[in-house]
Amino acid sequence: MDAHNKPNAPVLDSYWMPFTANRQFKAAPRLLASAEGMHYTSVDGRTILDGTAGLWCVNAGHGRRQIAAAVERQLSTMDFAPSFQMGHPIAFDFAQRLAEIAPGPAGAKLDRVFFTGSGSESVDTALKIALAYQRSIGQGTRTRLIGRERGYHGVGFGGISVGGIVNNRRVFPQLPGSDHLRHTHDPARNAFVRGQPEHGAELADDLERLVALHGAETIAACIVEPVAGSTGVLIPPKGYLERLRAICDKHGILLIFDEVITGFGRLGAAFATDYFGVTPDLVTTAKGLTNGAIPMGAVFASRKVHDALMHGPEGQIELFHGYTYSGHPAACAAGIATLDIYRDEGLMTRAAELQDDWHEAMHSLKGLPHVIDIRTIGLIAGIELKSRDGAPGARAYDVFVDCFERGLLIRVTGDIIAFSPPLIAEKQHFDEIVSMLADALKRVK
Ligand code: PMP
């Protein structure tokens, strides 16, 4: 029996689902009812192995009682408090805890923290901070924002402007003056690579090209995901991020890393900033910040950026920006409990211990039908399939549906399958993922 025909199944009409083909979904819904550890349970009682940490966020695994208890305690002590011209200790405590592990090297950490409600809000916040910073140092002509093709930076107007996904941009206007670097996806030169590919560092020179085209004095910031996740796991070529940093420094352009996916241990270091050893001026985060349990985002800013904005007349608001839910007490409680778990269980570096087994498992899928590339870094993998003639994305979607029926949650974007299992995974889970995916690949047309 279909899940939606069950007696206690929800009526599906009213919920307009995000990033979903609503009519197709509602004709054959996939509904999750509970979650524990590495697994979901569907409404029809099947166990589903979570190959994607929810949506790249449940890094410490599901059902963490410590987080639930902290949120419960906070909500019954103080459910909400305004953050405008008013404070509550837990938001300051959480920011201090984050400052201790903030991205960047000791002595130059990005340890000033602005709270938001999501990844999209973090991106728009970082872009606005960059603009405000440039103006505050007398560089007010710098209003242009540079992103990258195939970048995903959420769905705010700032995020879609610097983002590089055509479907997210097609019907919406964008910020004037936004421009894009080329993406780094180049399977002709870099197929089946573990870790960073050899070829493509020179693509960073696109930023020089845009400087030559527009003039450095018009460019405020350049934003990239260190590893692009949502558009199919694009790993930066060796030397690429370093080159981007050098060009930004040369021309007074702020560099922003969008670490909404890579933050909080995904690569085996707390942040991709630390993993790659390249330090941007601003870092956007969300997702793993609270283990996905409560919506929240945070922007980490360097002292240089933060302190420039802290000048000005006494009593003046330094940045006209913020959200009702910035530093929400329940989200901060969830965040502190999450950081405790990451620390106590060593999860920030666990991906580094697991990655050899993970990469081995993923690359064992080479040679299976339709597989044209496999890319792995930290506890992430992208498996690219050959598109079915005339129907891009259809083959991977069929694999996604089949895997769900077999008991495996994967994520697909176009014809690329993306994996990002919770950091509590064991080797046996990798074997299960490989086995279910291999069966699905052998069956798909
Ligand atoms: N930036 C990146 C790199 C992301 O992966 C995402 C979400 N997948 C976002 C921003 C947007 O986050 P949210 O959906 O929480 O707004």
UniProtKB/TrEMBL annotation:
It holds the Pfam family Aminotran_3. SUPFAM superfamilies: PLP-dependent transferases. InterPro entries: Aminotrans_3, Aminotrans_3_PPA_site, PyrdxlP-dep_Trfase, PyrdxlP-dep_Trfase_major, PyrdxlP-dep_Trfase_small. Coiled coil: none annotated. Keywords: Aminotransferase, Pyridoxal phosphate, Transferase. Transmembrane segments: none annotated. One of its GO terms (molecular function) is transaminase activity. It comes from the Bacteria. Its cofactor is pyridoxal 5'-phosphate. The keyword Transferase applies. Belongs to the class-III pyridoxal-phosphate-dependent aminotransferase family. This is Aspartate aminotransferase family protein. It comes from Sinorhizobium chiapasense. The lineage of its organism: Bacteria, Pseudomonadati, Pseudomonadota, Alphaproteobacteria, Hyphomicrobiales.
